[in-house]
Specification:
With 76 residues, the chain is an all-alpha fold. Helix content is 67%, strand content 0%. The protein is rod-shaped, with a radius of gyration of 28 Å.
Length: 76
């Protein structure tokens, strides 16, 4: 059984009308996409940095302590 749409909805779902987005909507969605890309890229870089920071360096205990101190001072 098919129910007829009200006139207002029938005008919205007319397949012969062409969709045209407002310019402001295009800009907003563009900025949203750019910010999402920047956030994801920053998160990927920070995860890589944390992995590098947490990894234990090889070498003598003295060398490891110097590397650890160098990494720690880079946080300031």
């Amino acid at each position: 059984m098919v129910f007829p749409l009200p006139i207002s909805l029938a005008l919205l779902f007319n397949p012969t009308t062409q969709f045209v987005a407002d310019e402001i909507n295009v800009w907003v969605h563009g900025f949203w996409a750019v910010s999402l890309t920047a956030i994801l890229a920053r998160r990927a870089c920070s995860q890589q940095w944390v992995h590098h920071y947490v990894s234990l360096p090889s070498g003598t205990p003295s060398r490891r302590s110097h590397v650890r101190h160098f990494r720690f001072t880079g946080l300031d």
